[in-house]
Amino acid sequence: MSAISLKNLDISYGPRQVVYGVDLEVAEGESFALVGESGSGKSTVLKSIVGLAPDWTGEIRVFGKDRGHGTDRSFSRTCQMVFQDPYGSLHPRKTVDTVLSEPLAVHGLSGRDARVGEVLSLVGLDQRFRYRFPHQLSGGQRQRVAIARALTLEPKVLLLDEPTSALDVSVQAEILNLLKRLRRDQGLTYLLVTHNLPVVSFMCDRMAVMNKGRIVEIAPASTLHTGDFTDDYTRHLYAASGGA
Ligand SMILES: Nc1ncnc2c1ncn2[C@@H]1O[C@H](COP(=O)(O)OP(=O)(O)OP(=O)(O)O)[C@@H](O)[C@H]1O
Q1: Which residues line ligand 1 (CB under 6 A)?
Q2: Which Pfam families match (predicted)?
Q3: What's the CA gap between 12 and 3, in Å, rounded?
Q4: pLDDT level of residue 85 (50, 70, 90 thresholds)
Q5: How far apart are CA 229 and CA 49, in angstroms?
Q6: How is residue 180 annotated by DSSP?
């Protein structure tokens, strides 16, 4: 059974269709990248999976379970999204403790105190960060909190939307290493959106290339070593990035 299965997925914002006929199977434990230029529809595919782009047709399945069009609580326990900008995605007046406790409270789970402590250490943050506010943290620490929040419900799938591109270059590698270690240790499956091909080489097993809302090629990430892509647009993207 695939961890994520998308079949003939069309997605619109109001009258405007932005994703066309996407078919994708991501295996359990796999790290899969969606690449392509800005506006090609990569983020929209992730958003549809978590319910943030509800105007879609086709099929979205996670671990064999069909996703409906509304909010789906059991779905959010399996599948969580991490956004690009950790400052924008964390409420400025909520402490780290509140941010990390909320998903547990919403799902009526007990043992919140212990779980908050656990996820902080999973992402390499000292317990003293617990009662701080986002503005008291660096960009990298904020992204660690956002990743910790995504992990609180013990999901099996993380959807990562440009998880390091808002960070200083020196911090990007730290967060990529953290994500790599978490995937291995927690047995997670990743679907990651990026325009950065070296990130794909470092983090991913396979990649799908999107152009104007369509997948034009699916290839092993190792193809980035040789540049041996079959699709013209992919070759153009590869050449424009100077290889990976
Ligand atoms: N909330 C929205 N309402 C209307 N149109 C949107 C919305 N979000 C994105 N779009 C449009 O949908 C198209 C695909 O956007 P999307 O963000 O999925 O692309 P992307 O490949 O992830 O690009 P980027 O890397 O810039 O985020 C774009 O034309 C964008 O303008």
Answers
A1: 13, 18, 36, 38-44, 193, 195
A2: ABC_tran
A3: 24
A4: confident
A5: 28
A6: H
Q: Compute CA distances 78 → 71, 86, 138, 156, 184, whole Å.
A: 13, 21, 29, 5, 17
The H or E element containing residue 80 is strand 79-82
| Predicted confidence (pLDDT) per residue in 145-163, tens digit | 999 999 999 999 999 999 9
Question: For the residues of 107-159, what is the DSSP string, one character each?
Answer: TT-S-HHHHHHHHHHHTT--GGGTT--GGGS-HHHHHHHHHHHHHTT--SEEE
C-alpha of residue 146 to centroid of ligand 1, in Å: 22
Checking if the pLDDT of 121 tops 70, the result is: yes
Q: Which residues contact 228 (CB under 8 A, 6 or more apart)?
A: none
Give the β-pairing of 214-220 and 206-211.
Answer: antiparallel
Domains and CATH numbers, the chain: 4-89+157-240 (3.40.50.300)
Contact in structure between 31 and 183 (CB atoms under 8 Å):
yes
Q: Whose CA is nearest to atom 2 of ligand 1?
A: 13
Among protein residues, the one whose CA lies closest to atom 25 of ligand 1: 38
Nearest Cα residue to 201 out of 181, 220, 215? 220
Give pLDDT tens digits for 223-241.
Answer: 999 989 999 999 988 988 8
What is the C-alpha to C-alpha distance for residues 171 and 232, in angstroms, rounded to an integer? 34
Structure tokens at 237: 């993207």
